[in-house]
Automatic annotation (TrEMBL):
It is a multi-pass membrane protein. Residues 16-54 are annotated as: Disordered. PANTHER family: INSULIN-INDUCED GENE 1 (PTHR15301), INSULIN-INDUCED GENE 1 PROTEIN (PTHR15301:SF11). Mediates feedback control of cholesterol synthesis. One of its GO terms (molecular function) is protein sequestering activity. The keyword Kinase does not apply. The chain crosses the membrane at residues 69-87, 107-127, 163-184, 191-210, 222-243. It comes from Anas platyrhynchos platyrhynchos (Northern mallard). It comes from the Eukaryota. One of its GO terms (biological process) is cholesterol biosynthetic process. Keywords: Cholesterol metabolism, Endoplasmic reticulum, Lipid metabolism, Lipid-binding, Membrane, Steroid metabolism, Sterol metabolism, Transmembrane, Transmembrane helix. Belongs to the INSIG family. This is Insulin-induced gene protein. It is found in: Endoplasmic reticulum membrane.
Length: 257
């Protein structure tokens, strides 16, 4: 009988021990769930990423506006300086009623050229990204400044050099423009965009001259000079290089997953 009572007492103690350890096991399991990243932690992670996404969107938008402003100012300034040279050499003639006192140029020339520069400068890196071929050839500001100097020289040559006819001048400027692209760009996107810009800008210029907004002396390509597409091509490549350089270090555009 004593043996039976002792056995009964030991079994009841073991049962009570098992019941006492169950709350501890539950707490242990809850801790393991929390440490392994339960649903609450996942939802908290999504909430933490939301402010970061909004911040990256804001930074990307701010950087885009800054690039647009810089390109607009550069395009407007270059238009004033280069157009002044054309007016002084009597290559471009504006009616007296539209001539402003600032740099002896029409008031609408700087805003139009600045807007065009902003569009072209933003378009070049965008096309590079779309094609998956980021431009890596001569990516430094020293190269960009040399490209600007060559473009100014090409524009200066169009007004200063005297050739027997416009065809010789046009061929010379075409060779210089292709040399500018080969020296500072060498990308298929740069060549294609440069040709497209030259074509579209030439059509717009033909339309403006046809409607009497301004005119060119000695036109030999319908209403304009035959070398003007070369100026537009080299200008597009130059502004494109400026836009590409400004786009370096741009924050990546956020995607909505």
């Amino acid at each position: 009988m004593p043996r039976l009572e002792s056995c009964t007492w030991s079994c009841s103690c073991a049962a009570r021990g098992r019941h006492k350890t169950q709350p501890g096991d539950a707490a242990t399991k809850a801790g393991e769930m929390l440490s392994s990243g339960g649903p609450s932690q996942v939802s908290a992670g999504h909430g933490a990423r939301s402010p970061g996404g909004a911040g990256s969107t804001l930074n990307w938008s701010r950087h885009l506006v800054q690039r647009s402003v810089v390109l607009f100012v550069v395009g407007a300034f270059m238009a004033l300086v280069l157009n002044l040279l054309q007016v002084q050499r009597n290559v471009t003639l504006f009616p007296e009623e539209v001539i402003a006192t600032l740099f002896s140029s029409a008031w609408w020339v700087p805003p139009c050229c600045g807007t065009a520069a902003a569009v072209v400068g933003l378009l070049y890196p965008c096309i590079d990204s779309h094609l998956g071929e980021p431009h890596k050839f001569k990516r430094e500001w020293a190269s960009v400044m040399r490209c600007i100097a060559v473009f100014v020289g090409i524009n200066h040559a169009s007004a200063k050099l005297d050739f027997a006819n416009n065809v010789q001048l046009s061929l010379t400027l075409a060779a210089l423009s292709l040399g500018l692209w080969w020296t500072f760009d060498r990308s298929r996107s740069g060549l294609g965009l440069g040709i497209t810009i030259a074509f579209v800008a030439t059509l717009i210029t033909q339309f403006l001259v046809y409607n009497g907004v301004y005119q060119y002396t000695s036109p030999d390509f319908l209403y304009i000079r035959s070398w003007l597409p070369c100026i537009f091509f080299s200008g597009g490549v130059t502004v494109g290089n400026i836009g590409r350089q400004l786009a370096m270090g741009i924050p990546e555009k956020p995607h909505n997953d």
